[in-house]
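JOB MANIFEST
job_type = single_chain_structure
chain_count = 1
residues = 681
[input]
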Amino acid sequence: MQELLYLEVPTPDTAAVIHWLHHTFQPRIGAIAPKSSGGCWQVPNTTTELAIFLWSLQRTTYLKVMRWGEQRFPQERACLQHLQGELRLAFPLKPEVLPPWPAGKTIFEALADRYPLTVKYFQRMPQGEADLERVYWWEQRWRQGVQQPSPPLAVLHRATTHCEPPSYDLVYVGGALGVIHAAVMARLGYRVLVIERLPFGRMNREWNISRMEFQSLIDLGLFTAAEFETLIAREYRDGFNKFFDATSPAHCRAPVLHTPTVLNIALDSGKFLHLCGEKLRQAGGEIWDWTEFETATIHPNGVVLQAQHRQTQQQRQAIARVLVDAMGTASPIARQLNGGRAYDSVCPTVGAIVKGIAPEVWDGDYGDVLFSHGDISRGRQLIWELFPGAGEERTIYLFHYHHIQPAFPGSLLELYEDFFTILPEYRRCDLDQLTWVKPTFGYIPGYFSHHRGDRAVAFDRVLAIGDAASLQSPLVFTGFGSLVRNLPRLTDLLDTALRHDLVQKQFLNQIRAYQSNTAVTWLFSRGMMVPSDRPLPPERVNAMLNTFFGILGQESPELADRFIKDRAGWLPFNRMALRAAWQNPGLLWWIYDMVGLGDLLRWLQSYLSFSLDALYHALFGFWLPPLVRRCQPWLEPLAPQLWFWLLVHSYALSYSVGQPRLERPLAPLPTPRVDQAVSPR
């Protein structure tokens, strides 16, 4: 028996496909004898038959055709092409339309027909109704931005007159990633305000990190080693990376890649944020939660922010020297800064924190960093993550890398229905026996940067950080890890700009977490995005992932760790790329077929930028940064703009090749109580 055809039929209704095969499909020759799971294609006076198998997995349908016999089936190739073409016509990939939410209905009532499992299990979460409303709001807002690319709503305005003297040096809009940066700046002596639209400390995403990455916050002086230990919800022993390969060619299979120090620490995000908030307050900062940002007017001497308290509807105003946008993916400021430029990609992510998974199903000493249990499903390669949390808690994510199209913007609700349907396939568990603690969800967008200046992250007196600046890894897509790695240089550069009043666009726009060694890996994530305009072999993405992770597995554990943490240098990157092409010669064509000539040329620009940065680092990286720092005492007061320019490029020499460094730790302060609550002033 020989496999002739393997394809995905993008529908969860496998029974409908079998019925179509039995009653609607008209073979070119012969007839199909019905079977419960497919059929047997037979031609009179021929001993060779085609066995057609259909099965369901991951809320989609897969089909294989096997030749049964020693001779070729009559008109074999034409018959298979005819079957494939008719299947595409009968079961095309259909875009998902967001269902309406009629007035007078609860969110549960509005979504029950389309997403029954999503409604069922959100109803079992403590704040499930409010959380599902937020999922709906987020998807609605995301769709509007993708499908109706009208000029962005102007929330930043200019004024030529002077405003009142600023009450704050910095106002951060967004209290998750924003409060981390804000706490550091407050420790440097700046007057800081954080505005947060939700109750402070509440998040719909959890954070995992490694000890080495968090050590940068300890070295910076924001946390002590003892405080860090109190923030650890769980530290697991080993992490696994494995992609489904049962249908892949033999040379595209790989063993499990072990990454014991990648995302192996689950932080207690609530305690972490409240500790950041307490450090901010201790340094004189303020927090306004339940407060919605509305507009900002930029004056020659400051920026005036207008906001509204969501519970009392009271208008609030703050005047700052600089506004820092940390609102994440839904930021209207970031959209206006880039003239409504669409994101290049997005990573829709859903999941939940649960209790009750049996130890024999999943040992809490281990984590799944990246895992797939099937091939392409309805135009997406679904990937799982599972991280142990405090006690019996397990944080489980389902996501996919997505190339944005107006008809296919990426749906959180559809992905949640997948999550609740196929979670028992991924890990054997009875969903009705689990305790649902809270959901985790969000859109994590990305821009494919060709060089460090190809998009705006700042305006006069306005700076974007975190996901609002799309500063995340193309591999693991986490703004938190990117911000932590880049926090020393971001704070040093912003401190320098504020001390010398270099708050115009041309200066603030250089305060960014761009890394050319990270930008060049966008081809990796682009290769995981299934095009919506044409089908791919179902095993294609898994085969590519296994090829590359197999190469990583042949390298030293230290190099694999560095690559996944965005610290790989030029030589290891090129060596692994050449080994992958040698091991799987079809890889280059697969990439070209998936990304197209235009994106491949864009990537070559990123690769050239990475190569030049590597050359600059080799020539100047070991002696120029120390020399620049030694010149600071006399150069900074004499020529602050030149000093700022040198500092930007000094940091770029090391960060662009994955070698972050700390030059200015914070002065120590008394340690606050970890359990002390933060309340808005």
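[summary]
The CA atoms of residues 243 and 545 lie 7 Å apart.
The chain has three domains: 2-90, 107-152+345-446, 156-341+448-655.
exit_status = 0
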